[in-house]
Amino acid sequence: MKDLGLGYEKIPACRDGCMIFWKETENLDACTVCKKSKWKDDIIGADGSSQTSKRRPVKVLQYFPLIPRLQRLFTSQHTASHMKWHAHARTKYGVLRHPADGEAWKSFDARHPNFASNPLNVRLGLASDGFNPLGT
Question: What is the DSSP letter of 52?
Answer without folding.
Answer: -
